[in-house]
Task: structure prediction
Amino acid sequence: MTQIPFDDCQPTYQNVSMNLSSLNDVEAAAFERDGYIVVRNMVAGKRCDELRTIASDHLRQLIAPIEFEVDVHYPGAPTDTSSPGADTSRRLLQAFARDEAFRLWALDPEVKRILAGLFRTDEDLSVSQCHHNCIMTKAPGFSSVTLWHQDNRYWAFDYEKLVSVWLALGNENKTNGCLRVIPGSHKLEFDSGRFDAAMFLRPDLPENKSLIQQSRAVELDPGDVLFFHSRLFHAAGRNLSDETKLSVVFTYHQTSNKPIRDTRSARFPSVIL
Result:
């Protein structure tokens, strides 16, 4: 196994699917209302092909750091290292350090422009090297189910407003385990009793069942980009197709929104766009 170093360095009430040049106050307002937007055809096919080729090569060589399905103990994952599928990758970690192509995408001027509109700020923005910063590698056969959660349940910053940017390198649909989101859930507050010990929504509670029924699948084509709030509830099913689904995911925050010292969120320095 090869090791790479860690790098220190129409608006609707469902969601907004917009063109790259059309970000305006309407889309920003939709993001504030729903907690996510989709930018269609944001990344050209040639660039997607390049990123997919690099990711596939790293996956084939098992270039570390890697999180395996067996590591997370989610529903459907192999139960231990001796189980069938125990070598199934869940995600390639530290994408920013893996290849210049991923760094260029993470720091892309159009990503910065859209994020500035979503954050509604002229302040500096930074990409985290502690959260997401990965290539999701949802494989057929042994991919697990990701239950309903908010990313902020695991992150520690001065305030809970970060945005994740999810680039589809291939088709993402219900069959291969695309993300599902609950529009507007980033604005809700919950008692701790609505979560289980792993900080997932408890599906046995009627109030959670009612909320989950409002969820929508976010189906993407190659080059589509999903921007979503760190408090947005989201989940994903298993990959029931014959091909591995690859997605590049980075998380951003205003540079003034600092990670809390001595937490996982402060393990590696963020990079200013």
Q: What stands out?
A: The CA atoms of residues 116 and 225 lie 16 Å apart. The radius of gyration is 18 Å. DSSP finds seven helices and 14 strands in the chain.
